[in-house]
Amino acid sequence: MLNVTDPTWEVERESLPATSNDESGHANMPFETTPHKRASYRSPPKKHSSRKKTWNPEKWKRNVRNLLKSEGKKYLSTTGRVVAPKKVHHHSCLNCRFKCSEKFTEEQREDIFNLYYSLGSYERQRQYICDMVEKAQQKGK
Q1: pTM for the complete prediction?
Q2: Of 41, 62, 71, 99, which is most buried, counting CB atoms within 10 Å of its CB?
Q3: Residue 99 CB partners (closer than 8 Å, separation 6+)
Q4: Can you say how many angstroms the Cα of residue 132 is from the centroid of all Cα atoms in its chain?
Q5: What is the rounded CA–CA span in Å between residue 83 and residue 37?
Q6: Can you state the percent helix, strand and coil of the chain, rounding each to 5?
Q7: Which region ranges are annotated with the description Disordered (predicted)?
Q8: For the chain, counts of helices (H) and of strands (E)
Q9: Which residues contact 90 (CB under 8 A, 6 or more apart)?
Q10: CB under 8 Å to 64, separation ≥6 — which residues?
Q11: CA distances in angstroms from 51 to 17, 48, 56, 70, 123, listed in the order given
Q12: What is the spatial distance between Cα 72 and Cα 118, in angstroms, rounded to a whole number?
């Protein structure tokens, strides 16, 4: 018996199992083995025919909702409920110890309200309040 790598090597007919292909003459034909190639698992890089979408956070539902909320406008909540816009409530401050109704007219209150909600962001609104508030000294202590 010859070596498997020998090109003249033939399989002996007795060593082959008996099959129905014996009549067709395939068993008499010599066959050769070829050396195995190492498998390459890297596929070629894919070409992208389209571009990625660019981010536009100003149009995202969540950001639009937060902006409308911080501006005091009508918006749709996360649960789907329509939230009414903010408005100035007219309170009677006759019993107030600070006498707010005497210090501020209704027009001034509306102007302050509109200015506050036109600032837009929560941080700017908080900064506005901090800038406007004065710390009062305690009396008698």
Answers
A1: 0.54
A2: 71
A3: 93
A4: 38
A5: 69
A6: 35, 5, 60
A7: 1-59
A8: 4, 2
A9: 106
A10: 58, 75
A11: 59, 7, 15, 34, 36
A12: 8
Token reading at 33? 């083995």
Question: Which tokens go with 34?
Answer: 């070829």
How much is the pLDDT for 6? 65
Three-state SS at 83: strand
Per-residue pLDDT of the chain (141 residues; tens, 9 = 90+): 555 566 666 666 555 555 555 455 555 667 777 777 777 677 777 887 888 889 999 999 999 999 999 999 999 999 999 999 999 988 777 788 888 888 888 899 999 999 999 998 899 999 999 999 998 888 876
Q: Which two tokens stand for residue 63?
A: 């950001």
Q: Residue for token digits 């007919």?
A: 13
Handedness of CA 99, 102, 106, 111 (dihedral sign): negative
User: Which runs of consecutive H residues, i.e. helices, occur in the chain?
Assistant: 61-70, 100-103, 106-118, 122-132
Q: How many residues does the chain have?
A: 141
